[in-house]
Write a structure and sequence with these properties.
Largest sheet: 7 strands, mixed
Strand content: 15-25%
Structural class: alpha/beta
Helix content: 25-40%
Number of strands: 20
Radius of gyration: 23 Å
Strand order of the largest sheet: 8-7-16-17-18-15-19
Distance between the termini: 14 Å
């Protein structure tokens, strides 16, 4: 009998297993895919190195870098090109660099003079009485509609594939809400945060690995060894006395602890026979579909310098493409000599791509990005990956839903959740949450 079963071998499940093993637990990980890694997928093809899911991760704080050192991945880590600090937004048919300082902001054509003048009144605007304000409502109130249309909406749709009118500010961007809470305004909150005494914070770093992001889950899977069972689709979970039982393909495993490190809709399917109300809450978390497209061009085909992280496309323009990353600029070794690699995204909460053929979506993306980037001809390399259920959406009501889920969880002893449908969608959030699980009071005694 095992001490803990973890269902799901994405980064949440793998990291949870690692941190629990450090505390003395002997985890068993059951993962449907092979290899493990969930949405972290890298591949080499035609001389290109591409990530078909997550493309990079932001390192903040010390938990994740320290873990990389312990598992021997720090030597494989590469930091993004400094040019990646430049982000473009499409406006007026051309990519415009987002301002990176007060002087650049004043000169930037992204916002009108009246919109810039409106920002001066931000510290004097009242707080909202809505305890679960949407991102869009918050930005309109504090910063104005132009900031929402040309800066925040493209960021939200590009990063979260979401709709700022529906996403909860406090659930999706809690640090932004905290600034207003601390200072009554974003400006005063930011000032107080800078003045607050405390340990010096390390600047965030955008990173990947020499052979793509998938090096990380593959390394952890290798270190976990026989504790990981890949290609194992769990069909049923149930209780036998004080034990949790997981069943798959005629096999069963028992343990007093169970961690569900799977998407919310998968957890809902497994839990429906045990707790229908909890399953319904999980199943209500939306996941829009997104397609990623890796596009290879000869460098001579692209007039734009591609001197940045990528280009976001505001929904206001009526285009379908969410944005495009300049992948061969961000990290080295992503394209052969004389070639460039772009990664485009289409779909999301504001643009349901349904079952539209891949070829039609590819045609749309190429037609939409070509004028802005000065692309001539068609890509000579294409790799498309459709994620039917991509990024979980923390819509308004999400935090209340999480509270109801936690209340229901208390009725199921020994069960825990670790996945990106709660407490942050970023890879770094998933790793930090996995570390926090192992530090919980109920996990301190692996023989208890």
């Amino acid at each position: 009998m095992h001490k803990v079963i973890i269902i799901g071998g994405g980064i949440s499940g793998l990291a949870s297993a690692w941190f629990l093993r450090e505390k003395g637990w002997q985890p068993l990980i059951l993962e449907a895919g092979d290899p493990a890694g969930g949405s972290i997928c890298s591949r080499r093809e035609a001389g290109f190195l591409l990530d078909t899911g997550a493309n990079s991760m932001m390192l903040k704080g010390e938990i994740v870098p320290a873990w990389f050192r312990r598992i021997g991945m720090d030597g494989e880590m590469i930091e993004a090109n400094p040019l990646a600090k430049r982000r473009y937004v499409l406006k007026g048919g051309v990519p415009i660099a987002l301002p990176n300082g007060p002087l650049a902001f004043l000169r930037s054509p992204i916002l009108s003079l009246s919109a810039k003048a409106r920002l001066l009144g931000e510290p004097f605007r009242p707080r909202s009485t809505d305890p679960d304000e949407s991102i869009a409502a918050f930005v309109r109130r504090r910063l104005g509609p132009e900031v929402l249309d040309w800066m925040v909406d493209p960021f939200v749709s590009g990063v979260f594939a979401g709709d700022p009118e529906r996403l909860s500010l406090r659930a999706t961007l809690p640090r932004l809400a905290a600034l207003e809470d601390a200072g009554g305004s974003l400006l005063r909150g930011a000032w107080r945060a800078r003045q607050a005494k405390g340990p010096r914070r390390v600047a965030p770093r955008l990173v990947s690995f020499r052979n793509g992001l998938q090096m990380l889950p593959l390394k952890v899977a290798d270190l976990l060894g026989d504790a990981l069972h890949s290609g194992c689709i769990v069909e049923r979970i149930h209780r036998e006395g004080d034990l949790w039982v997981a069943e798959a393909a005629g096999q069963s495993w028992r343990a007093p602890r169970l961690v569900l490190a799977v998407p919310a809709y998968v957890a809902a399917q497994l839990l429906t026979p045990l707790h229908a109300e909890l399953a319904a809450e999980l199943d209500a978390i939306p996941y829009p579909s997104v397609m990623t497209m890796a596009l290879g061009f000869a460098q001579a085909q692209v007039a734009h310098a591609l001197d940045g992280f990528g280009m976001l496309i505001p929904r206001k323009l009526g285009l379908e493409t969410l944005g495009v990353l300049f992948s061969s600029t961000i990290f080295p070794g992503r394209a052969p000599a004389g070639q460039v690699l772009l990664t485009a995204f289409i779909g999301g909460a504001q643009n349901d791509i349904g079952a539209r053929p891949d070829a039609a979506l590819l045609s749309t993306v190429v037609q939409e990005i070509s004028p802005a980037l000065g692309i001539s001809g068609t890509p000579h390399f294409v790799h498309a990956r459709r994620w039917q259920r991509a990024i979980p959406q923390y819509e308004r009501g999400h935090l209340d839903r999480i509270r109801r889920i936690d209340a229901a969880l208390a009725t199921l002893p020994g069960l825990a959740f670790r996945a990106n449908w709660r407490d942050g969608v970023a890879l770094g959030d998933c790793i930090e949450n996995a570390a926090a699980l192992s530090e919980g009071e109920s996990w301190r005694d692996p023989v208890g």
